[in-house]
Structure formats: structure tokens, C-alpha cells
Amino acid sequence: MTSRFGTADHHLTREHHTQSFSSTHSPALRVSAGETIHVQTWDCYKGVIQTDADLIKDVDLAFVNPATGPIYIDGAEPGDTLSVTLIDIQPEERGVARLGVGEGQLHDKVKAPYGRFFSVIDGIVSMNETVSFPAVPMLGVIGVAPESGEIATMPAGKHGGNLDNNMNCKGSIVHLPVKHKGALLGMGDMHASMGDGEICGTGVEIAGDVLIKVDVIKGITTDFPVTETADSWITHGVAVEDLTLAIKLACEEAAGLLVNHWGFTYEDAFIFLSVAGDLGIAQSVHPSSGTVIAKMRVPKIAACPKPFKI
Ligand code: CA
Ligand code: ZN
């Protein structure tokens, strides 16, 4: 089918979405490994913030972060990795960022609720007449059905979900641990730009179109999703209101991959990550309750050119 990207094998409109990740959801689309899919996504507010008056409205959290999907990938089975290549991410032309009452690192310094619209034209995000910067479109939410139960699209976890890693951008591959047949992939919460930590709780929230390719790596899995870029691979750690634990989990996943796939001793992995890796914060919207996400960037060098040896 023809999309704004040209030809894709499949096309999934945003009318097909869920507010949670669960193995009980019926697939909206069934595809084969190696195929491309044009996925249309809502902004995280499902389009309800349109006017200045809307900026200060209460938002029903039950409808935040709709994830387009689920997409069933033939051949994906528990114990495999689903590799989602983000071939292209094209936001629409208008996004929004907001301050919520009691949310984010500077919540005690500001008047909230408050918000503002951004224009996103020709790859440039404009906040006002003087502040503009390049767009780096990314997906806040990307995940698969979790091992057990139903997990809302608001938190992050081992299944992915609201990972809010700004490295989940055009050209990256997001490797997700498959827990159920077909994986049941969903995505949304596009940002035209989002800084490390997303300190106020929003990026430039925007709707848009994503072109992805899905592949299955048989018999390889990780604890949390792993992102791969042209020059790095990045592990994640997620914990509820505990950044210290999230950091430890991201470091442990990176060390585990260096040891299990690339033959490092644990001691040398520890030292290598310290001297050449970059620890970062994907999301920390203190003091809001919920998950915080750490990331560990490992440079692609000859000794560890990919996250997995396959
Ligand atoms: Ca998010
Ligand atoms: Zn968002």
C-alpha cells in the first residue's frame, strides 16, 4: 500500500490502538518477519489538546499514550528477540509540551498547569519567535505483550512500553524481548524532540507516521529492551521511583551482554563500561510516582560491534 513514505508492505492507522500491553489483546495486523509497516500514531493526548484553553485542562490519564497496534509478527516466539527498525519517523506540524501540577524536577518553582504549542516545520522545532532547534523525532512508547498480566502504556518495563529514550529515533533498531507468540507490538507517544530525562514530563508531544521493519532473532533474549544505533548499543534499566536501581539494572544488562556474547570477563566489562560507556537518564520526572528509566550506551567497536553475537 502507498503511504507518505512510498510503498510499505502494510499500513496501520491510529484507529487501531490500545491503552495497555497484554497477551489478551487481539492483533490489529498480522505480518511476517522482514516486512515493512507504515504505522500512524496519535500524540500522547490522543489529540484532545488543540486550543489554548485545552493546555490547562485536566487530562484523563486513561486515554494518555495510546499505542497503535497490536501487531502480530509471524514466527516470533517466547525466548526470541523482536528487532524493530525505525526506518523513518515523520511528525505532523504542531506539537505541545505541558507542565502538570506537582510533576517534574522544577515543579515547586512554576505555575501549573501550563503549556505551549510548538511548530515543527521542515525539521525545525519552534517554541516561540526566538527559540528554535532541530527536530529529532522519536517514539516514547514501544513495546510488546509482557510476560504476565496487563501493563498500561504509561509505565515502562521489561516489555518496553513508555521507555522515553530519545535514542529510539530514526535509524535506530529497538530489540524487544518476546514473551508471547506473535510478540504483539505496539507504539506511540511520538516526540518531535525530547531531552534526556524528560524533566517536566513531556517532550514535544505530537502525532505522526512511522515506517518500521520487523525482524526476529531466534533464541536470543535480554532482560529489558536494547536499542541499537549506527555507532552504539544502549541497554535500559527500569525501576519504580528508584533511579539508583534503574541505573544498576542498565549497567548489569550491558555487562551481561559483554560477558555472554563478546567474551569479556565481568571485571573487564565493568572497567570497559566505566572508561568507554555512557550512563544516562532516559526519563526521570521526579517526584511523580511511576517508573524511571536509565540507559547505558556502549560504543560499537570491533570487540562488541552489536548487542548480540548472532
Ligand atoms: Ca512518554
Ligand atoms: Zn510523550
Description:
With 310 residues, the chain is mainly beta. The protein has one domain (2-221): Jelly Rolls, CATH 2.60.120.580. 11% of the residues lie in helices and 41% in strands. The protein is built from three helices and 24 strands. It has helices at 52-55, 243-262, 266-276; strands spanning 2-3, 6-7, 10-12, 17-18, 20-22, 29-32, 36-41, 67-74, 81-91, 94-99, 114-121, 124-126, 132-134, 138-143, 150-152, 156-157, 160-162, 173-177, 183-191, 208-217, 226-228, 232-240, 278-283, 291-299. The strands form five sheets. It has a nine-stranded mixed beta sheet with strand order 3-7-20-9-18-21-22-24-23. Helix 2 crosses helix 3. The two termini are 32 Å apart. The model has no long low-confidence stretch (mean pLDDT 97). Bound molecules: calcium ion and zinc ion (ZN).
Brief overview, please?
The protein is built from 3 helices and 24 strands.
Tell me the structural class.
mainly beta
What is the alpha-carbon Rg in Å? 19 Å
Q: Residue share in helices?
A: 10-25%
CATH superfamily: Acetamidase/Formamidase-like domains
Instruction: Give the percentage of residues in beta strands.
Output: 35-45%
Look up the CATH topology. Answer: Jelly Rolls
CATH class: Mainly Beta
Strand order of the largest sheet: 3-7-20-9-18-21-22-24-23
Bound ligands, each once: calcium ion, zinc ion
State the order of secondary-structure elements, H for helix, E for strand.
EEEEEEEHEEEEEEEEEEEEEEEHHEE
SS elements, strand count = 24
Q: Which blocks of ≥5 consecutive residues have pLDDT under 50?
A: none
Report the mean per-residue pLDDT as an integer: 97
Q: What coarse outline follows from CA principal-axis ratios?
A: globular
